[in-house]
Amino acid sequence: MRYEKRSSPPAPVLGLRENAAQFTLLVAVNALVGGMVGQQQTVLPLLADSEFGLTGYTFIFTYVAAFGITKAIANYFAGTCSDRYGRKPVLLVGWLFALPVPLMLIAAPNWGWVVAANVLLGINQGLTWSTTVVMKIDLVGPARRGLAMGLNEAAGYGAVAVSSLLAGYLAEHYGLRPAPFLLGLAYAALALLLSGGFVRETRDYARLEAAHHTPRTDGLHDHLHAELTDRQVALHTSLKEPALSSASHAGLVNNLNFGLSWGLFPLLFATADLSIAQIGLLFALYPGVWGAGQLITGGLSDRIGRKHLITGGMVIQAGALTVIAASDGFAGWAVGAVLLGCGTAMVYPTLLAVIGDVAHPIWRGRAVGVYRVWRDLGYAVGAILGGVVADLMGLHAAVWAAAAVSAAAALLVAVRMYETHPRQPVLRPPSRLAPDAS
Q: Any transmembrane segments, and where (predicted)?
């Protein structure tokens, strides 16, 4: 009897083109992650008012705060577990948490069910979105990291926009429940199929990059060696390392604006007697421009650097919120939403690229997790700040407050962050980062 030698799997090679199939699959999975959020953003504030009779803004925003806090905690565990146990198991567990969410929203007899569903959604988002980010960074290596993050975030937030529009259409024609939430059920089922059957583990790509890692020649990262403890990674990403920590704080303000918009914008737009479809369109403009813009800004940061895009984007966000706060009708709000999307597109993928630039491949998953803890706490901070200010001073005052916070964040980045984009290629052919290339 003749035995054939089983061929071993091909050695990992870093690069976007070299890993195009897996990268594209992960982009599709991340679009489904974003769709889970988009299915509810237009509908839940209206559901709170029409079916549950909630009028206090702070109480209505509890579901956004619950989502943000839970997602922030899940991000930390996503980063730690993906470094320790691998990326794919974390991704699969995250999607299991998504399955009950649309069913709970459809059946919810009171607002507590909605809050509980958003706790599960926060776990889902933290585990799945963090993991797809880390997996894409693993695959592409340092040369096109900004482009990779732009494609990732464009898919996620483009799906938020499309799902917001679809949910608004379904709600207007078929009612607030159950039709809009059937989208989420379909997204979760498809994502489980793709993640379980077709996504491959990427941790070996990070190990490969670590084996060829070249530190900066200017000495800025000499203190960031490979063997950092979880506590050291958290301290550097949160407070000590100037680029990592200022990125974390800017990320918090970005999602403060998103959390505020999620809970407050539909209520603000409803003061002008707009239809559900018009409110859905206005809300979709922000993540739609944000998502599409990242197709440009991610790659642009690979060419011109990170810092100026982040600083300029924060300034534009502050201006956009000023326009929204000063407006009372569809036209002004539409202009402000487009500007807010442009500013966020400049910042969002670029902040992730900063984390990838600075963090060592061995602890990069943990650094991404800690950064996303800070960033996604912004949902809760925005919801609470927006709710309290809106209750005390009105909806427009809450948007003015967010504009002031965004301007302060721009100043912090301008003063504290240094340029993190590598000035020369770190990893290049002919070895193409294959093992034993020498």
A: 20-37, 57-78, 90-108, 114-135, 147-169, 181-199, 252-270, 276-297, 309-327, 333-356, 377-393, 399-418
